[in-house]
Amino acid sequence: MDDLRIGQGYDIHPLAPQRRCVLGGVVISTADGRGPLGHSDGDPLLHAVIDAILGSAALGDIGKWYPDSDPKWKDADSRQLLASLMEAPQLKGWRLGNLDCTVIAATPKLSPHILAIRESLSKLLKVPVERISVKAKSDNGMSPAGQGEAIAAYVSLLAYVTTP
């Protein structure tokens, strides 16, 4: 029997100079050389995806699994964090129905990268790309992300958990 589970995730990272801009596991070139600042690679979209997965399974949040106080996660590739989470025994029987993502950023412009981000998420989560939605918004300058000072990501997902 399958239980339906909903997960929600959110993350925001300030933009900092001399940082790679990584979103959904995709490196995006920026004119000003700024990217999300974080203990790991700072990918706010993958961090929000991880939080949504953990939320759907009632397993806490990314800080519990990958604390920024642990030097082991310094500059970690968020794709590897997601891959290790998907192998966790606590997620046995968990599978993704669909993923809906909204990224808030004034810079960089994300529309040329949406398909690559969807394909990256599809590969990482091992589901068809048709189950992955990624939208980019500027929020008209109403937040730090909309003012070009940060990048934020909101994620919702539907998951199926097989129970005995």
What labels would you give this structure?
single chain; about 160 residues; alpha+beta; five-stranded mixed β-sheet; two-stranded antiparallel ribbon; 4 helices; 7 strands; about 25% helix; about 35% strand; globular
Determine the number of helices (DSSP H or I, runs of at least 4 residues).
4
Tell how many strands the DSSP assignment holds. Answer: 7
Largest sheet: 5 strands, mixed
SSE order, as H and E? Answer: EEEEHHHEHEE
Write down the oligomeric state. Answer: single chain
**Residues in β-strands, percent:** 25-35%
Estimate the mean pLDDT confidence: 95
Helix/strand-derived class?
Answer: alpha+beta
Strand order of the largest sheet: 4-1-7-5-6
Give the overall shape, derived from the CA principal axes: globular
* Uncertain stretches: none
The radius of gyration is 15 Å
Calculate the terminal CA-CA distance, rounded to whole Å: 7 Å
Q: Give helix % range.
A: 10-25%
